[in-house]
Specification:
Helix content is 42%, strand content 12%. It has 312 residues and is an alpha/beta fold. Helix 3 links the parallel strand 3 and strand 4. Helix 2 packs antiparallel against helix 11. The longest helix has 17 residues. Bound molecules: 3-hydroxy-3-methylglutaryl-coenzyme A and magnesium ion (MG). 3-hydroxy-3-methylglutaryl-coenzyme A (HMG) binds next to helix 4, helix 5 and strand 6.
Length: 312
């Protein structure tokens, strides 16, 4: 399989962590029912392709996100397939009810997901901006007491479909508050993909000034306007070393108008390989997984790298 010529940039980190969100962010928006066995095979293939972190599913309200209503069953299948590795796969948890369901299945890594804007907090969580913290606080406390690792997402960091521009200070305030609940990492979400590289740099500078260094941050780009890879490069140059991505570029958020798929993992891995930045990901296995998944979904992958390497 073709690979990019490696031309190292000495200013860049030697290794980054690719945080695969395809099975969760990628599939949560699918309208057709995907058999739970297909989801389990997808997760297993991603693990086998060397992805160090694979977010498996969400323990959210099944009426709100019907596609992930099979979360418990999926974790059972994965435990049978992968043994204890299944417990290391992160899962989304919005509240204590979600935490209970995740604990029942032995999950060791959970993620809460807050909103930087009032409107999206209401649409995605049925809570006001302030009320979301009251929901997350006991969830994180109990998770930490049980020895779990907690990631926090903050959405709408670069713009909101209802409110328009979102001030950097507002994002930093909400993000820091979420992180300070007891998270080990804060993932900055460009939920609707409107960010551009200068905005990325400005937001990271503002978080650093507020005491959150790049090693506590991850970037979560959606590719609606084709900016995700440029934005990732800006964050990489800034010093961020964790990037969320979705195999084959699957995805979108069911509660955010105009959110399309995440940055495709293949596109990210291709760029990082060319820059000589290690990821541990086997691009050939990953492309074959995304090609297979595109067949299951009945439509071609939007990833340029998947298409160029002969996948569907
Ligand atoms: P609510 O209706 O306000 O819930 O939903 P409630 O607390 O009022 O409870 C109502 C009923 O739901 C109760 O049952 C609860 O037990 C039950 P009853 O007593 O009436 O029989 N319930 C649950 N059942 C199962 N699992 C649960 C759960 N919670 C309550 N976890 C809630 C509030 C937060 C639950 C709802 O709004 C929800 O599930 N939202 C999730 C939306 C979602 O998953 N969005 C996509 C993920 S976010 C995203 O994609 C962005 C991200 O990728 C980053 C980026 O791109 O920016 C992360
Ligand atoms: Mg997302």
């Amino acid at each position: 399989m073709r690979t990019p010529q490696v031309v190292r940039d000495p200013g860049l980190p030697g290794r980054v962590t690719v945080f695969e969100v395809g099975p969760r962010d990628g599939l949560q928006n699918e309208q057709t029912v995907i058999p739970v066995e297909t989801k389990a095979a997808f997760v297993r293939r991603l693990v086998e392709a060397g992805l160090p972190v694979v977010e498996a599913t969400s323990f959210v309200h099944p009426t709100w996100v019907p596609q992930l209503a099979d979360a418990a069953e999926l974790l059972d299948l994965l435990a049978a397939d992968l043994g204890d590795t299944a417990k290391e796969l992160p899962v989304l948890v919005p509240n204590e009810r979600g935490l209970d369901r995740a604990l029942e299945k032995g999950a060791r890594h959970i993620a809460i997901f807050g909103s930087a804007t009032e409107t999206f907090a209401q649409r995605n969580l049925n809570r006001s901006l302030d009320e979301q913290f009251a929901m997350f606080e006991p969830t994180v406390r109990r998770a930490r007491d049980a020895g779990l690792d907690v990631r926090a997402y903050v959405s709408m960091c670069f713009g909101d479909p209802w409110e328009g521009e979102v001030p950097v200070d507002q994002v930093v305030e909400v993000g820091k508050r979420l992180f300070d609940l007891g998270a080990s990492q804060l993932s900055l979400g460009d939920t609707i993909g409107v960010g551009t590289p200068g905005h990325v740099t400005a937001l990271l500078d503002a978080f650093n000034a507020a005491g959150l260094a790049d090693d506590a941050l991850a970037m979560h780009f959606h590719d609606t306007y084709g900016q995700a890879l440029s934005n990732a490069l800006a964050a990489l140059r800034h010093g961020v070393t964790t990037f969320d991505a979705s195999a084959g570029g699957l995805g979108g958020c069911p509660y955010a108008k105009s959110a399309t798929g995440n940055l495709a993992t293949e596109d990210l891995v291709w760029m990082l390989s060319g820059l000589g930045v290690e990821t541990g990901v086997d691009l050939e296995k990953l492309v074959s997984t995304s090609t297979w998944m595109a067949q299951q979904l009945g439509r071609p992958s939007p990833s340029a790298v998947v298409r160029a390497l002969g996948g569907a």
